[in-house]
């Protein structure tokens, strides 16, 4: 049935497995896209402008902020990240669902401004497992890891205002749960009622 | 994670395919049971007391109503059907999820009395398809079918206050959607927050 696109807003502490989960889910659903954010950080190896992010200068980012073009934006570890209002409008009009892989500050701004978004928090199984996973990433120093664990405790407390909590204990189960949230939310009455009313002449 | 059982309340107009969908879903999930209702109607061939229904006399049914033992009850085509409060309490305490396959009157009573239930409405693809399906049931006369189609129009209007609407167009898709609602609802923050708080020492 025809309906507006759904915004799935996904946050997690670093090391919870959010990026991998999001990729998996986008591969499964043809009508689900990764929302491309703007960022001032440098591209990492393999990242493509316009696909992973729109990589822009701090001046351009500030100018977009000043013109009110962002639905949400946040500074994380000294870099700015933002989602443009235009991206969300396109989703609404075209009926294409979007995954917004954004941090808690950004999610909170969206929650205040937009109705109908679906807020999902991904949790690691435990602090111990989180430390193990972060240690496994050769890229991070012990200092960075300790800072991330401390940050995680604060972030996890924010999970209480999300709509769904998914514990990434077994990856396949977490995928199944995230997939289920995507499908179930498309069946929410307030999203399909207009189409149903038309089809069954309930006016 | 430990949590209370979830009540999935499913209604549909006759011929939407609700019974088959419910059976399919119960086969899939080990922790999901069909709630056994009380009824005053006669058992049909193959129906088992205590499994399909508790078949009781009108006197016994009235006595249970008088003692306030029903969470919901309704009269449908001259027979009474009801769900006991005890059944719902057991679900809450044991963490076993229940499918309540009940009519709209009963669902409305539950909605007024219980928080946290999940209300799902199953729709046929169209009135034409509904008529075709009801015609295919050799058991029903033309009169009964016409009455059911008329009733369906009124029932479908009630779908607006349910949480989810599933259109049973393609059976496999409807199963997938119902399955997704079951899994997604188990991840709702308000159902898992207590367990998460304990695990991550968020107190």
Would you write up a description of this structure?
Two copies of one chain form a homodimer. Chain A starts with 6 loop residues before the first strand and ends with a helix. The radius of gyration of chain A is 18 Å and the shape is globular. Chain A has 203 residues and is of the alpha/beta class. In chain A, the strands form two sheets. A five-stranded parallel β-sheet of chain A has the order 2-7-1-8-9, sandwiched between helices. Chain A has a domain of 133 residues: P-loop containing nucleotide triphosphate hydrolases (Rossmann fold, 3-Layer(aba) Sandwich), CATH 3.40.50.300. Chains A and B meet through helix 6, strand 9, helix 7 and helix 8 of A and helix 6, strand 9, helix 7 and helix 8 of B.
In short:
2 copies of one chain form a homodimer. The first copy, chain A, is α/β, with parallel strands linked by helices.
Can you give keywords for this protein?
203 residues, homodimer, Rossmann fold, 8 helices, globular, five-stranded parallel β-sheet, alpha/beta
Give the number of helices of chain A. 8
What's the gyration radius of chain A in Å? 18 Å
Q: Report how far the terminal alpha carbons of chain A are from each other.
A: 17 Å
Mean pLDDT of chain A: 91
Q: Within the CATH hierarchy, at the fold level, what is the topology of the domain at 7-35 and 96-199 in chain A? A: Rossmann fold
> Most extensive chain contact?
A-B, 36 and 36 residues
CATH class of the domain at 7-35 and 96-199 in chain A: Alpha Beta
**Order of helical and strand elements of chain A:** EHEEEHEEHEHEHHEHH
Outline type of chain A:
globular
Q: What topology, given as strand order, has the largest sheet of chain A?
A: 2-7-1-8-9
């Amino acid at each position: 049935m025809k309906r507006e696109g759904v915004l799935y807003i996904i946050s997690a502490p670093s090391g919870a497995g959010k990026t991998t989960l999001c990729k998996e889910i986008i591969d499964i659903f043809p009508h689900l896209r990764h929302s491309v954010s703007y960022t001032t950080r440098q591209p990492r190896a393999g990242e493509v402008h316009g696909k992973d992010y729109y990589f822009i200068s701090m001046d351009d980012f500030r100018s977009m902020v000043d013109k009110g073009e962002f639905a949400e934006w946040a500074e994380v570890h000294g870099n700015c990240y933002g989602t443009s209002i235009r991206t969300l409008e396109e989703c609404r009009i075209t009926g294409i669902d979007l995954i917004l892989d954004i941090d808690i500050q950004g999610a909170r701004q969206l929650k205040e401004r937009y109705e109908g978004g679906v807020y999902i928090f991904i949790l690691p199984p435990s602090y111990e497992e989180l430390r193990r996973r972060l240690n496994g990433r050769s890229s991070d120093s012990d200092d960075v890891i300790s800072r991330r664990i401390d940050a995680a405790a604060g972030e996890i407390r924010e999970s209480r205002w999300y709509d769904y909590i998914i514990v990434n204990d077994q990856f396949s189960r977490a995928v199944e749960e995230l997939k289920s949230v995507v499908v179930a939310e498309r069946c929410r009455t307030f999203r399909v009622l207009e189409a149903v009313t038309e089809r069954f002449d309930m006016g």
